[in-house]
TrEMBL record:
Residues 1-19 form the signal peptide. This is GDSL esterase/lipase. Keywords: Hydrolase, Lipid degradation, Lipid metabolism, Secreted, Signal. One of its GO terms (molecular function) is hydrolase activity, acting on ester bonds. Its main location: secreted. GO terms for biological process: lipid catabolic process. It is found in: Secreted. One of its GO terms (cellular component) is extracellular region. InterPro entries: GDSL (IPR001087), GDSL_esterase/lipase (IPR051238), SGNH_hydro_sf (IPR036514), SGNH_plant_lipase-like (IPR035669). It comes from Papaver somniferum (Opium poppy).
Length: 369
């Protein structure tokens, strides 16, 4: 009796200590989710566009200069999802198209379907030739769970359980603005729809896509806001950015983001068992652009690697020499943040404590639900 009690207390103590450590330490050597599935554009693409006839590619030096080699990431180093995966206890998630030849001999930690130039709308990014739109990324995910994953699980229930515990990271919409709405010569959207009307159209399209993801088994989803596109060197070079960020472009993004936050709330209450977290990347990047000193940053309006005004007229070219002090720049090239900024964003949202950037809970807390 006494022995049993002692034994029980010891077990309880061990469980408490390790349970606590597991929740408190983001870099704990265990997984809070079995897998992460990523849907997105060039901010999260880690090589998919190398496998399709895309113009939007970054498989050349100096891309990857702080990663080791040009992997296809549109950055000097790691992206937000690379850091995020690590913080969830996962390895770097492989680009789905690199595995096409492997048949069913695939891993179970998830896939990255993101494709540079892709958008919520199928037509977005057409000016960059091939890209995998959100609808096409969902088709690849459907193929993954119908053809590639079933042989790895004992039963359909086990597969469904794995899918419901996995993390789904959806970072889409930037190109629906910079490679659609803000290109009136190539796309009619801005002549047909007001900023509010266009945002409504994007959100209703995305809503259908997310319901499809839910019906395929997803439960833990992160909806990533669009960053302050009016601050990127490419936009600064097109409009005179002398006085800082282009406010009318940031306004368009905020109209979309406020509806995206609302969508996360609506779907969480309408889809039984689903939790959607809104990750406010706009807030994080804007904070860095407005208060660079707080982060040890010094250059907020010029690309580390790029050409012309603000380094944003022509983006980083093959073999171009980038800035040496990359941790001082917000932007790596005409469109994308530096690895440093990506790490700040990940640190602010993937931790297991509450986050000022995430609603209603942090990505780390979502993982542990
Ligand atoms: C992110 O968090 C890690 C772990 O606490 C820390 O080592 C790193 O310096 C942080 N990175 C940035 C850019 O703030």
């Amino acid at each position: 009796m006494e022995f049993q009690l002692l034994f029980c207390c010891t077990v309880c103590f061990v469980v408490m200590v390790y349970g606590y450590k597991g929740r408190g330490d983001d870099h704990a050597d265990h997984r809070s989710v079995p897998a992460m599935y990523i849907f997105g554009d060039s901010l999260t693409d880690n090589g998919n566009n190398n496998y399709i006839p895309a113009i939007a590619r970054s498989n050349y030096f100096p891309y990857g200069i702080d990663f080791g080699y040009p992997s296809g990431r549109f950055c000097n180093g790691l992206t937000v999802v690379d850091y995020g995966a690590q913080m969830l206890g996962l390895p770097l998630i492989p680009p789905y198209l690199s595995l096409a030849s492997k048949g069913t001999n695939i891993g179970l930690e998830g896939f990255n379907y993101a494709s540079a130039a892709a958008g919520i709308l199928d037509e977005t990014g057409g000016n960059y030739a091939a890209r995998v739109s959100m609808n096409a990324q969902l088709l690849m995910f459907e193929k993954t769970i119908k053809l590639q994953l079933p042989s790895k699980f004992k039963s359909q229930e086990d597969l469904a359980e794995y899918l419901s515990k996995s993390m789904y990271y959806i970072a889409m919409g930037s190109n629906d603005y910079i490679n659609n709405y803000l290109m009136p010569n190539l796309y009619p959207s801005s002549k047909l729809l007001t900023p509010e009307g266009f945002a409504d159209y994007l959100i209703s399209t995305l809503s259908n896509q997310l319901v499809r993801l839910y019906n395929l088994g997803a439960r833990k989803m992160v909806l990533v806001a669009i960053g302050p596109l009016g601050c990127i060197p490419s936009q600064l070079s097109m409009v005179n950015g002398e006085h800082g960020c282009i406010e009318h472009v940031n306004y368009l993004v905020r109209v979309f983001n406020s509806r995206l936050l609302q969508l996360s709330k609506t779907l969480t209450s309408n889809l039984p068992g689903a939790t959607l977290v809104f990750q406010d990347v706009y807030k994080a990047v804007n904070d860095m652009v407005q208060n660079p000193n707080k982060f040890g940053l010094t250059v907020v309006n010029h690309a580390c690697c790029g050409n012309g005004r603000y380094g944003g007229a022509v983006t980083c070219l093959p073999l171009e020499k980038p800035c040496p002090n990359r941790n001082k720049y917000v932007f790596w090239d005409a469109f994308h943040p530096t690895q440093f900024v990506n790490q700040v964003i990940a640190n602010r949202s993937f931790r297991s404590e509450a986050s000022v950037d995430c609603y209603p809970i942090s990505v780390g807390q979502l993982a542990r639900l």
